[in-house]
Write a structure and sequence with these properties.
By secondary structure, the chain is mostly helical. The chain has one domain. The chain contains three helices and no strands. The chain starts with a helix and ends in a 12-residue tail after the last helix.
């Protein structure tokens, strides 16, 4: 494989990752919009939340986004945590 082919494959991979990121952001935007429109005084909040949870589970990027969030927000082994009552 030539250097030019490697460069081309790298560029194609970056383009695919960029496209995936845009679609993931679009899905996230739709979910955020739905949560923002919840009427908390309404009786159907539980049903609406369940619907949103199902949409996340069924989405192409939902589990990837959750895994990414967990990996980024997980405490590092070197970090120390102090519980405040």
């Amino acid at each position: 494989m030539t250097n030019q082919e490697r460069q081309q494959r790298k560029a194609q991979k970056q383009q695919r990752e960029w496209t995936d990121a845009i679609f993931a952001l679009s899905e996230l935007g739709g979910i955020i919009e739905k949560t923002g429109m919840l009427n908390l005084s309404d009786d159907d909040v539980t049903d609406r939340l369940a619907e949103i949870q199902n949409e996340i589970r069924d989405s192409v990027y939902g589990f990837r986004a959750i895994a990414l969030h967990r990996s980024m927000s997980a405490p590092k082994e070197t970090e120390s945590w102090t519980l405040v009552p």
